[in-house]
Every structure is written in C-alpha cells, then in structure tokens.
Predict the 3D structure of the following.
Amino acid sequence: MNVSYLNVVVPGRRATIAAALGFVFTAFSGGVGVAAEGWLTRYEDAMEVADRTGRPVLTVFTGSDWCPHCTTLEEKILDSAEFRDWARDRVVLLMIDLPQNGITQAIRRERSLVCKRYGVSTFPSVLLLTPDGEKLTAQTGYTGLSPAEWIGQFATHMPAVCDTLDEAVVRARGAKRPILLVVSRPGDTAARTRTASLINDPEFEALANSHFVVAQVNPATAGGTETEQSMEHLLGGVELAPEAVEIIVTDDGQTPLFSQSGTQHPSRVVSGLRRFLAARQATRADDATRR
C-alpha cells in the first residue's frame, strides 16, 4: 500500500496498534521515548543505543490508526513470543508511527524526516539498519509469513557473532573453523563503533560467515578469570590503547595464529584475512604432501 506519509486521510478503522497490543508509550529519564515492549520511538535514541551496544536497528514504519496491514504485522509477528525472544539482545527496536491522529505536528515532522531519509512510502515497511544508520535490508507489506519465516528474512542479514570467547570456542569445535576475535576495551565507544562498522561490512561479513566463527569480546568480560588470562595471552600481554580494535585468529582460544589492527578500512582487514587463509591452506597442503 503506497501512501503519502505527510498527509494521510484514510477513513475507517481508528483503533491504534499501540492500544490494541498494549504498547503504552512512556518517557523515561533522559527523554528516551520507549514502548512497554522495548520499542524506542525516536530515531536519535535508537541510534544512540545502537552505537553503544553495536547492535543493528530493526525499524518498523507504521500507521497505527489507519493501516490494517500494519495491525496484522504487529498481531501476527511483532507481538509474538518467538519474535520477542529473537529480538532480545540481538537488535535495537525502533517504531516510527505516523497515525492519522494522536501526535503533534512536531513529532509528525520528525518522523516524516526519517521516512524521507530512507525513502519509505509504503506501510508497513521494516528496515534493518547498521549502528551507523546504513540500510542492511528492507521489507514492505505483510504477506502472511509465520514468525519464523519473517524473522529468517532479517536474521540472514545479521552477522552471527558470539559474545564471549568461551562460546566461540565451543562453536568453533562443532564447526571445525578457526575463531576470529574482534577485541576492544570495555566502555570504549569509539572502538565499539569501529567494531560495529567492521562486523556489518558486507565483504567482511561474507568472508567471516564462510570461514570463521566470529566473537566480539573485550578482555575484561571475556568469560571468567581463566578466559581473561587466555585473552591476555592472545593479546601478547599488551594493553589495548584507547579506540583500538584488534583482530585475532586462533584455533583453540589460547594460541594466536594471526593478528592485525581492526581500525583499518574493512577492505584492508579482509585482504589480511584472505592472505592468512591462503597461507593456512598452503601449509596444510604441504603437510599432506609430506605425509
């Protein structure tokens, strides 16, 4: 359904999605508008959280009191336990609602600017954005998919990144792949932004998903005292500088095989990793020949 998001006049259904689903919007300290189910309502707030956490932003554009397909999307997908379980700790949730009634002109202008920024004129529309605000993928309308099918369309565009070294080691054993660690200091916002840009880079994502198990960690929260010692060994006992991001490849979570700076352009990081993989393959071929 293509509509003008600046001046919508649609007769008929008036009950808002928010009221129907119990999404009562409130204002928390700091002026962050959020919904009871964890939905932010201001673009700037969502991008701030994304910048801090490194998570992508799942943005739903809706017309809550005039768009029946929007209502169906919320009822069938967004209010489902399956969606809530998937979204928790994976994405920042942002809802840009342009109802016919119930918001001020200032809020309408603010939300309309977000629509214009991403070229949204169809409701509902759902965009997955990087922490830098770049569009990863988009979906318009709702065609009756199940929650699992709908989630799958977005999950395939998200890098599967472990939060701890321990988790990466377990996953690497099962996948028989080396571990690619993206390491930065805790609380370092600049480093986290660089990490998010790297992990969400399409070329890096394609290479990482094909050849590695990826983990985004910092030395202080790597997964316990013993694991912290492993991280210290992997870093060569050197403390990370402010804004630094290190790329480390290891097979066992203890012995470093390759390292490089993650603050470089993603294409340079990818080139370095490709050289590592080529050298690794050549070494294995030589070993097989000697046997």
In short: Residues 1-36 have pLDDT under 50 and may be disordered. The domain at 17-155 is CATH 3.40.30.10 (Glutaredoxin). The chain is about 45% helix and 20% strand.
